[in-house]
Structures
1.
Amino acid sequence: TVRSRAVDAADMGKDLEKVLITEEQIHAKLEELAGEIATEYAGKDLLLVGVLKGAVMVMADLMRALPISAPVDWMAVSSYGSGTKSSGVVRILKDLDVDITGKHVLIVEDIVDSGLTLSWIRANLASRSPASVEICTLLRKPDAAKVEVDVKWVGFDIPNEFVVGYGLDYAEQYRGLRQVGTLAPHVYS
Ligand code: XMP
Ligand code: MG
């Protein structure tokens, strides 16, 4: 029921130490980015490519904010060995369904942390002869960058802390939180 879901959401929220970005801030930012993206790709053959699973919320809200229609496809990659650090080793778990030759590809991501995953994905997609490849990410951690990634649209630069919510998980939990925040220490112990 709606009521029990609201209670669940409140319970989930109790595990947050602090909220970095509210639902309202996320939605306002995505509206702004969607306007810029629509202008950039007007009249072009745009394909939105989401990176599973973290980008599901960003994609859902961005595509609804976009005043232009564009097909969506998904990729799933594994970049983390164990824990919360990027290993730099990327493996495709699910490839795109469609051929991107000649298409203007916009990669939609939840977060750019070390940048290792996205730079690998971008190079991989660029090798398939698209017309262009650009990146839109909701979050970026400038202090965590290990490689330079040219990201055309960034929602928010955040401190170098592990965050959850709005698609981002800790051990597959908390993806459903409507805001982005850091977890309280008790969750980790
Ligand atoms: P990199 O380091 O390669 O990030 O840029 C790869 C993927 O790791 C996930 N990631 C996070 N997930 N909280 C999360 O829940 C974080 O703070 C975080 N940092 C990175 C994310 O899926 C990203 O695409
Ligand atoms: Mg991700």
2.
Amino acid sequence: TSAAYDDNNIFAKILRDEIPSHRVYEDDKTVVFMDVMPQAPGHVLVLPKAPSRNIFDADPASLSHTITVVQKVANAVKEAFDADGVFIAQFNEPAAGQTVFHLHFHVIPRHEGVALKP
Ligand code: 5GP
């Protein structure tokens, strides 16, 4: 079982514009912004606006829309960063590496022979 959604998590504050972010895409249900500690150039985060802590409590319709945006963003960063591939990741609960508790997908352009930054 996971904890409840915390309205004061950092991405909730970004969604409310209480903390600045570099937004690159937005629609009625989704926001995309640059990761502040990119693991490679073009590392972006895709978030549903609907409050969910992670995959476990996400609304399926919201999740479906979000993954469609992830696909668009993967194509966009591949093109924009002339990437050879795109890494997509998503963490649920601290045991799996989640540190910010609003559901998000990492989308990271990758180049042959170039390692991710730690
Ligand atoms: P995760 O929960 O997926 O393990 O990691 C959260 C991600 O959010 C990390 O890649 C981290 O660099 C990013 N992050 C944390 N705080 C901020 C912030 O205030 N602004 C932005 N743009 N990204 C953040």
